[in-house]
Each structure stands twice: as structure tokens, then as C-alpha cells.
Amino acid sequence: MQYIVRSDKIMDEQKDIIRVRKLIELYKGQLQGRRMLCKNFGQSCVTMLEDEFTDYRYGSNLVWSSIREFDNWCKSAIAGAQIAPSSK
Known about the structure:
Layout: H1 7-32, H2 43-52, H3 62-79
């Protein structure tokens, strides 16, 4: 049995891949300008991306893997930077 994938679904996924990559580049540009980093550096941006692209959460695709790569980038930035003291 063969499954036919609708071309409009493929086009939507390709548009989402382009969109998520542009958003990640935008967020990286905003985050790279910071001198002092906090413990949750970039996590609000990662959460926004995860919330916006929830349809791709359980698939192995470029959208979700791009979000995971961005999350790892944020975590590695924290690991190699000076952490700002938390304000309480």
C-alpha cells in the first residue's frame, strides 16, 4: 500500500522550515548583543518557537531539529559565558 503525501502539506512544511530558520537567526542576533547572560538565556525564545510549531514536535523533521539546535546553542552560550547574578 502506498501513501500519497499531499503537495500542499509539503509546501506548508517547507514554508515553516524557512520561517523557523529566519526566526532563529533573528533571535540569535538579539541574544548575541548581550554582555551578561542569565541562567535561562534564550529559553523564552525557545519556548515561543516550540509553542508556535507544536505540529512538528513528534516528527523527525527539520523544523523541530532546528529548534533543538537553537536550544543547544543557547545552552552552550551559557556554559562559556559569564553569568549575571540573579536578582531577587
